[in-house]
Amino acid sequence: MSNRTLSYRGRLKDGGQDSILLSTKKGEVGYRIVKFQLMTQDPGTDTMEGACKIYKIEQSTIDGTVDFNDNRLLGAGEYHSNENTAYPSAVTGIIFDNEIFNQDIYITWKDNLTGVSINYYIELEQMKLSEDQAMVATLEDIRNND
Questions:
Q1: CA of residue 103 relative to chain centroid, distance
Q2: Got the DSSP string for 32-74?
Q3: Dihedrals φ, ψ of 131, to 5°?
Q4: What pLDDT score does 80 carry?
Q5: Can you tell me whether residue 10 is helix, strand or coil?
Q6: 130: pLDDT strictly greater than 90
Q7: 143 three-state secondary structure
Q8: Which of 9, 38, 76, 102 has the fewest Cβ atoms nearer than 10 Å?
Q9: How far apart are alpha carbons 91 and 5 in whole angstroms?
Q10: pLDDT digits (tens, 9 = 90+) for 65-92
Q11: How far is CA 43 from CA 5, 32, 38, 81, 109, in A?
Q12: How far apart are CA 50 and CA 63, in angstroms?
């Protein structure tokens, strides 16, 4: 299997969470995030300020707090927009592109102002993992669930 790029997209309501199903029976396929982009549902009309985050495990609570010390976090994006054009929109996206995982991932969105939805786009690089790499990635996933 040569490395290839897969893309996923979706829209999250405020407080929403999507899952991207990636796990395989033996965990021999690995992924890393290469692109993460956000766009409001109604460009130029929404006032919003929120955080979109990508996790290695499903989240029981969706919030707008970003903590880079959380080893389950794979990336985060902040989106700020105001319908008043005197205040330009701003998007910041950070991905931890050295993180290789072989399990499902979860995307969350929390708008801290008005409860507006967000669109997301993610590109993943898919790669074949050796048996040792698959075992390490799976063990890390088990540890992250504790």
A1: 13
A2: EEEEEEEEESSTTT--EEEEEEEESS--SS--S---TT-TTEE
A3: -60, -40
A4: 84
A5: strand
A6: no
A7: helix
A8: 9
A9: 23
A10: 999 999 999 999 998 877 766 676 777 8
A11: 28, 29, 11, 9, 17
A12: 9
Please state the length of the chain: 146
3-state secondary structure of 138: helix
- Joined tokens for residue 116: 């507006």
CATH number for the domain whose boundaries are 4-144: 2.60.120
Q: Are 9 and 111 in contact (CB under 8 A)?
A: no
103 contacts 3 by C-beta, under 8 angstroms: no
Supply the pTM of this predicted model: 0.88
pLDDT at 16: 97
> Looking at this protein, which amino acid is placed at residue 39?
M
- The amino acid sitting at 53 is K
Record the tokens describing residue 26, joined without a space.
């033996």
- Tokens of residue 27, six digits: 């965990």
The residues, ordered by sequence, that sit 6+ positions from 132 with a Cβ below 8 Å of its Cβ are: none
Residue extents of the structural domains in the chain:
4-144
Residue carrying structure tokens 């955080």: 51
Distance CA 109, CA 146 (A): 23
